[in-house]
Structures are given as C-alpha cells and as structure tokens.
Amino acid sequence: MELERVMTKLRYDASVSGYALVTNDGTPFLSFSLPEETIPIIKGTLEIHSSSLKLMNTVSSAGTIILARIDSNWVLVVLFIVDETLGSALQKTQNVVRILENTTLPPPPEGIKTEKISETGFVQVIPPQKVDEIEPVESKPDIIPLDEIDVRHGCIVFQGELFSPSMSTDSEIYLELKGEFANVAMDVLMMVDGKRSVYKISQTLDRQVERIIEIITWCVSRSILLVECPEEQALGSKEIIELPLFDGDLKKARKEHRHVLEQCDGTKTIQEIAKILGIEYFATLQSIAPYKGKLIKMIKKTQ
Amino acid sequence: MGLKGTLAWKLKTDKVAKTLYQATYRELQNMLMSSSENVDAINQKMKEIGFRVGETLLMDYADRIREHAVSFAEFSKTLQLAYKVNSGQEFTDIQVSGDERTIKFTDDKCIICDGVHITDMPGLQYCNIISGVFDAVLSLRGFKAHSFQESCRAVGDATCTWTLQRTE
To answer: Cα(A177)–Cα(A191) distance, rounded to whole angstroms?
Structure first.
C-alpha cells in the first residue's frame, strides 16, 4: 500500500489525534496534528529506548502515545484520544506498522543514526555518516531568480543536483532550507520521487497547495529540485479506452454471460475479449450490458 | 437551490443522457490527445472549447449576468447556479480566500470524469471544459480572472477542484 494511503487511513481514524514518522533521535517528519508538548516526550523516550524499542506506550496530557518501530530508520508515533483503551491503541498502531513494513519509505536526512537490531537481540549502533564522506559539490550552481521559475500544481517534481546535500543535516543548504520553511520543507523533499506532482505532494502532506508551490519554487531556484510541467509532458500515442472490470459474484450472473464476465479483468477491451472468445463484438457487449452500473466498472485509461 | 430553481431544473431544462455525454467527452479528449504535442496543449485547447461552449450557454442568461452587480467573491453563487443548470450537479464545497481574490470549487462526484482512470498524465486537467465555461461567465460579467482545474479524479486526486484567481 502506498505511504499516502496509510497516512490517509490514520488521518481519518476518529481515535487518532495525531501521528508522525520519527527518526531514532526523535525528530518528527510527515507529521500531522502532533501537539508541541508531545515532542520532548517523544524525543526523551527515544533517547532512552530507541535501541530496544519495538512497541511501547507513554502517556501525555494530550492522550496515549504509542511508539512502534517500522525499520532501522523509522519509528511510527501515534497519539490517541484520551478515551481510547491501551489495548486498542496498541493493536491499531501495530496494524499500521505491518502495512508500512511493505511500503517503501523515504530515507531520513543524513546525519541521523541507524539502529541495527540483530536476531540475537545484541544491539549495534551505527554512527551517523559524516558530512565529509559526501563528495563536496565542486562548483555550486547559480541561484535562479524566483520570478523566472514557474511551478504549478500539475508539475511533476524530481530531485535536483543539490538534493542529497539538502538532506544532510550538517550542510549549509539544509540549514538555509530549514531556516526558510522549517520541517515542512523536509517533508516535501521526502515526498519527491519523480512521479508525484506538486498537487499530490500537497494532498499527502495535507498542506495548502500554494504553500507547497512556494517551497518547491525556492528549491528549484537553489537546484535542490527540478520540475517537469505539463508543457514538457510529451504524449506519444495515447488514447483513453474502456476496459471492463467485473468485480461482482459470478454465481449471481446469468450462466450464458459468465464466460464473458470472467474475461473482464480491467486489462482487455471489449474487442479483445470478443476475439479471445471467438464471438462477435455485439454479442460480447450484450453479455456485459445487463451488469453495467451494478457490478461492472469500466476503467478508462490511456494506452 | 430554491424551489423555483429546482422546478426549473426538473421541468424546463432539457437534458441529455449521461453515458452519451461522457462518451462524447472522452472521444473529444482522445482527439485532443492525438493532435497535441504535450499535456499542457490539451489543457489549453479544452479550456478554449469550454469558453466557446460557455458563450453559447450564456446566450439566454447574458442580460441577467451583466446586471448581477456583486463582488467577485459573491459572484461564486452565480457560477454555482451555472454549474447546476448545466450539469445537474451541486458543488461539494466552495472556498473563498481571505483576500477574496481566489475561489475554489470542488465536486466529489464530477460526472465528466466519472469512471475515468489515467495513470500517466499527472498534469492533465481532464475536466478543463468547466474552467473555460467559467472564463466565459467571468468575461461577460467583466471580471479579469484566470481559471484552471487544480485537481481531478481522473488522474487519481480525491476530488475535482476548479480554481479562479482574480488578476486585477
């Protein structure tokens, strides 16, 4: 499941007041509605327990905080409403962690330690990467004036030349970025995967699109990010076509229609299905038509 | 919508079958795709089509709109009525910015792109015909603004959003 969908699930759970993905030193990222007063509690807990943490709870005046390790870099922190029972809070958090274990998580900024938990339980702390291990940028790219940059909601965002240094907590550009936009900027950088558009990033982070445009424009001017806008999105040969998808119960469909409905898996057009079954197009359509709007979905996509 | 408007919609407004409209719109999009160099060109062309469509739709209402002496932000109600009369749909939400220079309309159940699922054109404003219609209405009223579709269910967003930004 994509990271966005997991975060949306949490956001819409009425028992969840807030959450964050937290690094081993307690720095929150991709956070949503976590009250300020919980941050020192989370940091303090991780300072003591980071190396042995799997699933634990701690208490704050805002409610129960559950901390659950996802992988060697990340801990999921969820703040539950005061009325939620401990058992339910632990279970819900564990369910989310199980999903996140199969999700590709972005790497945290460099300079933060990774926990390595061996199977025997012996804990080995890997020290943070030093900044001077990263190749210094020989000639820094010029700053592009902000008014020469046009970032819009439909532009896809890519990593730029200075993306890696900007994710390194000791670099000059990281400090500049953090000074301008605080933690939101790091959340934005972590969402950059060469597929998400500006709008998608704003939706995932639950931030106003205008704010995200501002941050990304600044990052483009500093060569941290690149954007590909709709004028640059080439088309090739594309067409929207209908691909029927039957997601109902075949047993409830009429016998004579079942062999056609079995072929409706969202990947074949009606013409293709007709050819596979060796029947006429119109006969195929007649087998699907009684179920349209009830059980059959027509997925229309580009080729 | 009030009683008068509801009755006008039910009894007096001519209607067209949804499947016919959606299929025709889809083929129009296909034609634009085959004749455009990039995604932005499709967006622009669909908006221009919307503008001309809007001009036709407005012929019966032109005088009433011209005389509608309201502010840009209050004009959102006129646009809401235009959307309802031409699609049978209500907007799910209307948001006006604090400085009243930006209006955002959303429709969680947009009928234009209902069932459409496009994964490889993230910048496509599939329902941009609506932006063009809005442009025509605003131009008739004398407001200088530009409009675009900010989010679209066809490309995987949660809702369809059209944004109007005042330029003067």
So the answer is: 16
Are the beta carbons of B37 and A235 separated by less than 8 Å? yes
- Fold of the domain spanning A240-302: Arc Repressor Mutant, subunit A (1.10.10)
Structure-model confidence comparison of residues B110 and B16, the more confident one: B110
From the list A196, A197, A301, the residue facing B118 with the nearest CB is A301
Q: Of residues B84 and B148, which shows the higher confidence score?
A: B148
Assess contact for A109 and A94: CB atoms under 8 A. no
User: Hey, is the C-beta of B31 within 8 angstroms of any chain A C-beta?
Assistant: no
Q: Which of B98, B108, B103 shows the shortest CA–CA distance to B75? A: B103
Cβ-defined contact of B156 to A200 (cutoff 8 Å)? yes
pLDDT of A124 reads 40
Could you tell me the domains of chain B?
13-166 (3.30.1380.20)
Nearest to B161 by CA among A154, A10, A4: A154
Count of CB contacts below 8 A, A vs B? Answer: 84
Q: Global pTM?
A: 0.71
Q: 3-class DSSP state for residue B130?
A: helix
Q: CB distance B26–A301 less than 8 Å?
A: no
Q: What chain A residue is nearest to B160 in terms of C-alpha separation?
A: A199
Domain ranges (residues) in chain A = 3-100, 146-228, 240-302
CB-CB contact of B129 with B86 (8 Å)? no
Asked whether the beta carbons of A192 and A225 are under 8 A apart, the reply is: yes
| Res A299 pLDDT > 70 | no
The reply to whether residue B30 touches residue A239, judged by beta carbons under 8 angstroms, is yes
pLDDT of residue A188: 92
Quick: pLDDT tens for A18-43. Answer: 998 888 888 888 888 888 888 888 88
In three-state secondary structure terms, A65 is strand
As a whole-number percent, the residues of chain A with pLDDT over 90 amount to 22
Considering the domain delimited by A3-100, tell me its CATH architecture: 2-Layer Sandwich (3.30)
Enumerate the β-bridge partners of residue A66. A57, A78
What b-and-e string marks burial along A130-165, b requiring 16 or more CB atoms within 10 Å of the CB? ebeeeeeeeeeeeeeeeeeeebbbbbbbbbbebbbb
Q: Write down the residue that tokens 């030093």 correspond to.
A: A130
Position A119 confidence tier, pLDDT thresholds 50, 70, 90: very low
Centre a 10 Å sphere on the Cβ of residue B73 and count the other Cβ atoms it contains: 16
The H or E element that residue B54 is part of is helix B39-57
Determine the pLDDT at residue A244.
Answer: 87
Element (H, E) at B135: helix B129-141
Q: Please provide the average confidence, as pLDDT, over all residues in chain B.
A: 86
